[in-house]
Design brief:
alpha/beta, 5 helices, 5 strands
């Protein structure tokens, strides 16, 4: 009996011709941001949990050359935590290539939008991840059926984080839910 062919998940990038696997470091600005879900969808990715205050001289995140995607919700309080997380990550020379702002289905508050606008100059790209109903009902994000626009968004995040790893024509940085 032959093994079943490998299924690829949205955002899964297989090793390139040189055998190198290109990974993204995914870290949350706060608990409940959607870090683990996004890390599953962006596989191969390192889910680093939440940025925490560290002892002086210790970096908040060590990416070891991998691109960092910072995940936050779209509330005013979450935006304030995102500012603190950007400060904690970048103070030692790390660079955030993608700030992923996860929507909850409601409009972004003006205070949050203002704070995210301030952060836009300090990160490589700002990507707004819309509310995706299929993820709410799924036990495993890898098994959720994502709408086409959500799949393109995942490819867009990967393209921002790893230039050349995804088709630039499929890159979308702001997507509404299907």
């Amino acid at each position: 009996m032959q093994p079943a062919p490998a299924r690829t998940r949205p955002g899964l990038v297989l090793p390139g011709p040189d055998g190198a696997v290109r990974e993204i470091v995914v870290v949350g600005a706060h608990g409940g941001a959607g870090t683990t879900t996004l890390a599953v969808l962006l596989q191969p990715a390192w889910d680093m949990g939440t940025v925490r205050r560290t002892a002086r001289g210790c970096p908040a995140v060590q990416s070891r050359g991998r691109p960092i995607a910072l995940v936050t919700r779209n509330t005013a309080a979450a935006a304030a935590r995102a500012i603190s997380a950007v400060n904690a990550i970048t103070w030692q020379g790390e660079r955030i290539v993608v700030l992923a702002i996860v929507g909850d289905g409601l409009p972004e508050p003006p205070a949050a939008a203002y704070r995210f606008a301030l952060l836009a100059a300090r990160v490589g790209a700002v990507v707004r991840v819309p509310f995706i109903a299929s993820l709410r009902a799924a036990d495993d994000p890898a098994q959720a059926v994502l709408p086409g626009r959500a799949r393109r968004l995942i490819a867009g995040i990967r393209a921002e984080a790893l230039p050349g790893a995804a088709d630039p024509a499929s890159m979308t940085t702001t997507v509404g839910a299907d």
